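User: I'm curious whether this sequence folds into something compact or stays loose and floppy. Could you predict its structure so I can see for myself?
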Amino acid sequence: MRFSGAMVAGVALLLSLGTAATAWADPSLDPAPSDDVQVLATNFQLPFPCGQAWNGNSSASSAHQSWEIDFNRGSSAGADLGDTVVAAASGTVGISAHQGSQNGYGNLVRIDHGSGWSTYYAHLNVRSVSAGQTVSQGQKIGTVGNTSKPGNNISPHLHYEVRQGTGYPSNIRKAVFNGVTFGYPAQTLTSRNCGGSSNPYTPQEACGSGYDVVDSAGLGTSGTVYLLYNNGNGNNCVVTMKRTSLGTPTATTAYLEVQGSSRKTDSGNYSYYAGPVYAYAPGKCVKWGGKAGSSVYDSPFEHCGS
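Assistant: Here's the prediction. I'll summarize afterward.
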């Protein structure tokens, strides 16, 4: 795995402060950390699109062995069904399969991150990646679901684990998001899984107050396109956030099409993002996408309820 100079510098700072050995893990479970381990641990982000707030709980399930976390954000038991799940860090998909009666994971994706680290995403409704596939941080890997073993009726949620090495369950590690250890047993966090971008703007800032991220799609290393929705006024918003050539005007596009209506597009040479593009679409399907650099994303008609 390749590490940026900024990341390595951050690790060096932690080490110089004498906090690196305790900031991310339980010393009784983890070996003495190396620089690579520190970089991997502090680079993990929440497994949901940039800007979304999710509540994590490690104590509400009798199935938990150690530091696993169940995530929800909706006000009802089924509110999160179909919500996007993204990779907490870049890596290679080690497992993408329905576990059947083997265990209670149901549709499971495991991503291997190097140095023995892996993340697990269980109970998925849909898996969007295949075993052996390389994924980037923030890339969509599936959707929240309630799949499990036969007879195990659970409400939709994401079961998330971080492991290092072998020997389950002693290899389960405390989760770290954006360089900070999760506040066990429960905490609500806002995702900073923004594709590693140093763009000074967020999708919410571009679209305005009241908009929440519904979905996102990576545009290679050049950017990310986001779909947002405002429950207050029934509008969708699409914005394409650049990740490269920041501050320099380059060709960038964002579009939004409500089924049965004409497509709305914002395309030009922009320094930080294209859009926002708005459309009133309560209860209607939308097609959305964008372009940054040479990468293009075009969705099907989807998200028909929001």
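Summary: Residues 1-36 have pLDDT under 50 and may be disordered. The domain at 203-298 is CATH 2.60.40 (Immunoglobulin-like).
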